[in-house]
């Protein structure tokens, strides 16, 4: 294994992603050349926690889909993004507050756009309800399920970025074997079995897992940093995320 003795190196992180507060600012400015892309990223990242919140509040499937789609459309139409102020709270709080305002004051069933009509920023199909069907059967409040799904979304985004970086580096197979150790410790002899599959030494596998975990933590922190006003708030938000999922 002469060429395989070196520990697997995680791919270099190509960039620090623009914060979501910056995305909000761009999305709220119709003259911004980045507005369309910003809105697409915004909606794609956070539609599910909001959908789960609406469903847990008792709305039926089709109504919840309509409400979620209409909320994002109204977010743009009413220029609510321009009112977002990072200094007044977390990005997750801003979105939930805006959604509650929409549900309480803005939504009119008799004025709801027909399915397929109007501008749809979030396309919801059966996968939305399939995901919701997997939510815990416990009596989680709408707020708690929103917070839980928000936290999981951040971790999922970090994991997706990590997977993409390994794929770009041609190391998808390494990732597939090592990703299980992001959340669990290896049993006796497991690293040796993985080492055979990846043509690495057992020590190199252990080092690769360490680097994978370290890189994943960095990506999670980057995702968190996008949703707070300043880097000094990242640790506090990280503690909140872990407490939410505990």
Structure explained in plain terms:
The protein is mainly α and 246 residues long. It folds into 2 domains: 18-135, no CATH class; 141-246, no CATH class. The protein has 10 helices and no strands. It has helices spanning 20-27, 35-56, 61-77, 91-106, 126-133, 142-168, 172-178, 190-198, 202-225, 234-245.
Entry keywords:
mainly alpha, 2 domains
**How many structural domains are formed by the residues?**
2
- Annotation field: number of helices: 10
Return the string of H and E elements.
HHHHHHHHHH
Shape: elongated
Low-pLDDT runs of 5+ residues are 1-7, 10-18, 110-117
Give the overall pLDDT as a whole number: 79
Q: Distance N terminus to C terminus?
A: 42 Å
Q: How much helix is in the residues?
A: 55-70%
Beta percentage is under 5%
Structural class determined from secondary elements: mainly alpha
Give Rg in angstroms: 21 Å
Oligomer category:
single chain
Number of strands: 0
User: Main sheet?
Assistant: none
List the SSEs and their pairings.
Elements: H1 20-27, H2 35-56, H3 61-77, H4 91-106, H5 126-133, H6 142-168, H7 172-178, H8 190-198, H9 202-225, H10 234-245
Helix pairs in contact: 1-2, 2-3, 2-6, 3-4, 6-7, 6-9, 6-10, 8-9
Briefly characterize the structure.
The chain has 246 residues and is mainly α. Helices cover 61% and strands 0% of the residues.
